[in-house]
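Our platform keeps sequence and structure together, in a single record for each protein. Nothing more is needed to write down the fold, since each code stands for a local backbone conformation. An entry from our holdings is shown next, in its original layout:
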Amino acid sequence: MEINEVHSGVFPAEVHSEDNILARIRKRSDEPPKYEEIQVWKMSPLGIELVSTAKTQHFKKGDPVELEITLMGQRSHYIGLIVNEVVDTDDKLILCVRLSNKPSIQGKGSERRNSDRWLCGNQFLPTCICATPGRFNDFVYFQIRDISSTGIQIACSLRNKFLLIGMTLDLQISLPLVSNISISVTIRRINIRSESGKDYLVVGAEYQELSQNSKNALGQYLIQFGNVSTLDDLRNSKFIPESMSKGADFYFLKSEEDYREVLELRLSANSEIGHISPGITVEDMADEYDSRARIVVAKYQGQIIATARMLYNQLEDKLEQEQYVKWPTSLPRKDQVLEISRAATHKSFRKNDLLATLFGFIAAAGALSGREWVVISSPDELVPFYTKLGWNKTELHYNHPTFGNVHQNVLMAKIHDILCGKNVNPLYWNIMWKEAAQHVTGYKSFSPRGTDKLRMSIYSSLAPISKFFVNRKISN
């Protein structure tokens, strides 16, 4: 008998009586069903060799059979085919059974997963470990290849012989740069796959139960290293990552292609909330200020998902607001002001920390540039939100003809003050400004004093509470 005929190239493990692996067999044609106990001789995840006795001598090559295998108290059922009969050196008759990947007792996860699958990044594959069933102080090491809302695909070496369909594994999972979690899965499929000239055992497993914390950890890994298209894809599966921004790249605009995408995002984001005037096109999203602005973008999976414009005006320059209002002498000089405008986020990536990180990126850049003040325009409904972030309403206001003629309020804040939390809601400071403040601390342009340091320390102690507000409050 060729080993490949039964075990598909996996060298089987010998089974001894002290291993406490029990088996029962019956012909599929038996009516009523009648199982016979039978000794396991050798086994692998794909096949099993059984010692025939007088009670089982009626089983012959070619018979379709059903098997019940009990290993460490876990019982699995299979359909199989007797592909050979062999007499060994001790005159034992060995029945060689090729196991099917489909258990004879169907579970809800026995069909192939029809939920969305996300491939794990090859350079940052999660790993997991579990105790080898039936073996003392022995462990199975897996790599996780893909993740879905219902299960995972894991791969290990062919040395692991005691993995059976229907078996439950308690996995300790390490998600790179995210966290460690513990989950229980049930094996639903086992196959062999060849990669780069090496064969692996590939296991399809279904979650037994997945806590929300575990879902969120898996979601965070996927948003950073998986092939997720949008944040909404994860949310629809109840995988809610704590941070969207950790999966995005933030940088200043570099190419014409990116600029075109920025204009499209400006149009779509404002159209969705009814802030676009009739007849406005993508080309209308560009203006003369773009040519001397630094445009910040956040890109995820090759797509720009957030943007904002930063203007470092000189004394002789006009602010964008000066198209509609006169800049009074009572406000800071224009060469002391960082002007922020045209902020937009993609609809499928909102209600997370993306906007907060975008603003933090801008605040840090503003602090390092030496600009003292930051100015923005806000529609009426968002003024309370920006007030919590440390902005103050000025007497300036206007209606913007491009953006739906919506009433806009000019708001100002001192960059040093918002980074230090002065006049900022402490929960929002943790979300919006804390990381930016940590980034610029130590530079000459940002030197918190004693009271500022005390405030920042007190606010930081509220960080765990602040996290509960991210998904619900920080949206664009």
About this structure: The chain has three domains: 3-99, 117-236, 246-473.
